[in-house]
Please model this.
Amino acid sequence: MTRPKTSRFFLSSFSPELMTILLKGARERVEIPCPDQRTMKFLQMRLQMLRGAMGRENHPQYRLATRARTTRTWHPDDKDRDCVLVVQPNDIQFSDMIRKAGITVDEIKHAGDILDDITADPEPSPEAKEHEGDPVFDPYAKFKGGG
Model:
């Protein structure tokens, strides 16, 4: 049985505003009010699709984007009221507990954060440029033993 063709979008098909939301949400909590559940779910899906495209095209800020988590909230009595999409760092829910325990990031001695050398305006990788528009390019081939 053959697998159905999965629709995948190129990184260039996403707006810069979506990239900004995803990267800002990796650093701090971002709340986006939405008019209804349908719009909120679609926005969440587009952000997840953007993150996938960043990974497939070896975007230099992909590791930062993987730090963001999306969640949806709404009014308990009416699912289409008070809809908010929240984009925030993965472990933000533990911040208060960690601070109360007296632990701060400054106490950790490490060589530096992986995000220190990330530029604001990245260039696509040579591999992504080489295969741009190629529908049969498989970015996962190297993990399957084919590349």
